[in-house]
Design a protein that fits this description.
Chains A, B: This is Transcriptional regulator. Chains A, B: Belongs to the ROK (NagC/XylR) family. The structure is a homodimer. The first copy, chain A, is built from 14 helices and 16 strands. Chain A has a five-stranded mixed beta sheet with strand order 6-5-4-7-11, with helices on both faces. The longest helix of chain A is centred in the last third of the chain and has 25 residues. The interface between A and B is large, with 54 and 53 residues.
């Protein structure tokens, strides 16, 4: 169910594929060999041999006995969460963030540093990011690294093609970080923040268990991430989901992009703040940061400030049109309003639902609309999930460290 | 490369999967056993055994010798196109159509019958369609049937949920046709005409070899079909690509659907014809049929008729906005203008390309825009392809008929 990217992984041998299938099955919790055999379509003998290998690699361990319904108890096997870790990094206009997670998804360490990333430039930013990562890793070698960036990414090449807020073009993020972290380039994946936000919602947010999801993220720009069939939908060049410049009003404002009436001219944070207050108002004070300005806007809407209420109401109309369009194109199960839209969810979800329920398809709108419960952390959550994903596709990435510490025999069922 | 729907097929045994891989490899033309072994990752001994079975099922045959570059010639094997056939059917508002194709995609028989399908109703329409099919099949049993319908389809259940032009709801097309044609329900696939049009373009039109394609189809309504990663993108309920009611002008006309400024209010055929001529003009004469009215419109644009030119120019603007939106969402390699848009392609392709080249992504627009070379036959071409697809996934659907007529030995390489 978790979003993975099989296309990016090297083909593995049938034995490795079976090791991987067992490891993934154990993600949901401890299981007996008999249960593993049933879930993975393997014989119990094959499972025993494979579990021995996973144990020798340190990836699984015994988890006590399970009382059998009809007789003798079974030995349980569980994931050894601490045996490996993944590193998630994110670059935003005003901050770097890093998270180290266990194999079982638990956060081991995390840190955020504010910075003027555009002013730092690419190379010094990569120095900072690597420094942050080393502080958290404490010498551990991650099985994978995923980097979230705000821009157009060629994910196959692990290159950030263009990030307008950072003014970076063709930034070879994976190469730069691999050199700084002493890792191979193929351990590092680079992805767009909205794509990773969509994955975050699928693994840890309102999209759990969902295979078709649209994540719409509000910030200085407006971005989107798509999950279809349980994997990120990328399109031909990796730019799918770039909804910031879809037309929501052809008689609207000129957008710096060259088009007219783009979603960003109505839903980008600065456009909304301009609508909500005159120049010079504290709502425009960069010193407050994005979170501070959104918090102030929210406070004013609560208080009933007319301009703030009108600006958020217009934002709801624009999001309604944009979301309806994407829903018609993609037919998702869930639409998630992320980034700063999540903060304003109490005023945005209803107008979007209303526009969707005016749908012409002759059926109840089955598509849910929800504010992101993860807020601005969704991309980092998605990145953390994908960072360990490499190991769940190929458990032989970690070496055999000990002879098996696990009982190779199981009490007969 | 061909669009297939593996999700809909039952899992097959490893041997069957290998038979299928060989059969698919032979689609491109005759190959030797050595070549087949290399392409399918099998040993030459395995290939020989599998080819014997395919030959016993009548699906392949010897195709003479190929001069070896470095010595003795090799025996070639080829698809036996005439050994099986697929049936494609289509229902449109004003006609039924049927095509029977060979295993190699060659058309064996085809026929179109005009009819007022809405007036006939569902059951009499299915009688007519089955009658048409039996006339073409001449007693042959197709390996698969694909039915193209103009509406929302639950393709897993093979049910047409809603077809506004036919006024059919929850029509169990596969059940009704299976009973009339003496076939099992699982041999019959029902799909939306725009989805099948997209497949048609991938297998036989401007999308050959393309894995990401958007097919936009103009008719009374406006529909869309998406191919992503080489397969039809369906979304959660099978309604992906339904772009007829995306908003292209929020200050535009009220649409019967309940929304305002939908693409159909600008690009549906009757909207365009209303723009091009006053009531009472022959352009609105239903007796001319869709093709006749579009032909007349085209004639007037060529002649420079002002209203006709203006109407087609407005249509280009609306398509530009809609296509740009879908391109931002999906990032396809190719956009195909199908249905009546293809007929007017010489005036529509340029405005769409112009709007796309105003893209903000900071890269040359790599997305091609092309009129459909298949025109209104694209859905039937896609349906014909998918009708035989079942056999290419499971060659054991046809029984063993003879002992192998093929040489089991090959001249040593």
């Amino acid at each position: 169910m978790a979003a993975t990217e099989p296309g990016q992984l090297d083909p593995v041998s049938p034995r490795t594929a079976n090791l991987a299938a067992l490891l993934r099955a154990l993600r949901a919790g401890p299981l007996s060999r008999t249960q593993l055999a049933a879930r993975c379509g393997l014989t119990k003998a094959a499972v025993s041999g494979l579990i021995t290998e996973l144990s020798e690699r340190g990836l699984v361990r015994s988890a006590g006995l399970q009382g059998g319904g009809n007789g003798r108890p079974s030995q349980l096997v569980e994931l050894n969460g601490a045996s490996a870790c993944g590193l998630a990094l994110s670059v935003e206009a005003d901050r770097f963030a890093a998270v180290v997670t266990n194999l079982d998804g638990r956060v081991v360490a995390e840190r955020t540093e504010t910075a003027d990333v555009a002013a730092l430039g690419l190379h010094r930013s990569m120095d900072e990011l690597a420094f942050l990562a080393r502080q958290l890793l404490l010498g551990d070698q991650p099985v994978g690294v995923t980097v979230s960036v705000p821009g157009l990414v060629d994910s196959a090449a692990a290159v950030l093609r263009f990030a307008p807020t950072l003014r970076w073009r063709d930034a070879e993020i994976a190469d730069l970080l691999a050199a700084r972290l002493g890792l191979t380039v193929d351990a590092i994946r680079v992805d767009n923040e909205a794509n990773l936000g969509a994955v975050g919602e699928v693994v840890a947010g309102v999209g759990r268990g969902v295979r078709e999801l649209f994540y719409l993220s509000g910030g200085t720009g407006v971005g989107g991430g798509l999950v279809s069939g349980g994997t990120i939908l990328r399109g031909a060049r990796g730019f799918a989901g770039e909804v910031g410049h879809i037309t929501v009003d052809p008689s609207g404002e000129q957008c710096p992009c060259g088009r007219v009436g783009c979603l960003e001219t109505k839903a980008g944070l600065s456009a909304v703040l301009r609508g909500a207050a005159s120049p010079g108002d504290p709502l425009h004070d960069p010193a407050l940061g994005v979170d501070g300005r959104v918090g102030l806007l929210k406070h004013r809407v609560r208080r009933g400030d007319q301009r703030a209420v009108a600006a958020v109401s217009e934002l709801g109309v624009a999001l309604g049109i944009a979301v309806s369009t994407v829903v018609d194109v993609l037919d998702p199960d869930v639409v998630v309003l992320g980034g700063y839209f999540a903060e304003l969810g109490e005023w945005l979800v209803e107008p979007v639902r209303r526009e969707l329920s005016a749908r012409p398809l002759g059926h109840e709108p089955a598509c849910r609309v929800e504010p992101s419960p993860l807020g601005t952390t969704a991309p980092l959550r998605g990145a953390a999930h994908l960072a360990t994903e490499r190991l769940f596709a190929d458990p032989t990435l970690v070496p055999v460290v000990t002879s098996s510490s696990i009982d190779t025999a199981e009490a007969p069922a």
